[in-house]
Amino acid sequence: MSIYTGPIDQLISRLKKLPGIGEKTATRLAFYILNSPRKETEELAKSLIDVKEKTSFCSVCFNFSDRDPCKICQDNSRDSETICVVEEPADFLAIEKTGNYKGKYHLLQGVLSPLDGISPEEIRVKELIDRLRNKDVKEVIIATNPSVEGEATAIYLAKLIKTLGIKVTRIACGIPVGGDIEYADERTLSKSLEGRKDI
């Protein structure tokens, strides 16, 4: 039970709903906001409202954007013959931050999970296949997470895409840079061996 009432308690309660935010962090953030200058708090509130009102899905890749098509889909300098398929916007951001990938993207907005009732119709599979039929794409890189659902989604997509005569690749999974083999689990080691390449 909270010792605070009214607006402070409401703010802490709302902040706790954010992923990765527990009671202590929510309380710390609430007091940071409370002690911040009014202008800074108003700018935070405006940013929260703006992101809801001015952001939607790109009609091509289904990433969040404030324009349609998004900046990456409009960028003619990017390789339009390669599409990297990811689960969520956070995955897109992680790949984009590497600076190594110069192609286009497709965001599924989820993964297949029959136990949770998530079928191909619930994610952006149809849109991906339609896009591949209408564009001159030579390679699709499947970059779903190495979870059970991510692997199932990758296998499902690979079967569909191969029927279109398009090359399908999967990002490598395995030992992280700086990791020790002795501490890796069997599945990670298996994936590392499967994903080996010439040096």
List keywords for this structure.
alpha/beta; Helicase, Ruva Protein, domain 3; Dna Topoisomerase Vi A Subunit, Chain: A, domain 2; 2 domains; four-stranded parallel β-sheet; two-stranded antiparallel sheet; 44% helix
Notes on the structure:
It contains eight helices and six strands. It is of the alpha/beta class and 199 residues long. The chain folds into two domains: 48 residues, RecR Domain 1 (Helicase, Ruva Protein, domain 3); 131 residues, Dna Topoisomerase Vi A Subunit, Chain: A, domain 2 (3-Layer(aba) Sandwich), CATH 3.40.1360.10. A four-stranded parallel beta sheet has the order 4-3-5-6. β5, α7 and β6 form a beta-alpha-beta unit. The longest helix has 16 residues. It is globular and about 60 Å long.
Task: Indicate the percent of residues in helices.
Answer: 40-55%
What is the CATH architecture assignment of the largest domain? 3-Layer(aba) Sandwich
| Number of separate domains | 2
Poorly predicted parts: none
Please report the distance between the alpha carbons of the first and last residues.
59 Å
| Contiguous helical run count | 8
Structural class: alpha/beta
Strand order of the largest sheet: 4-3-5-6
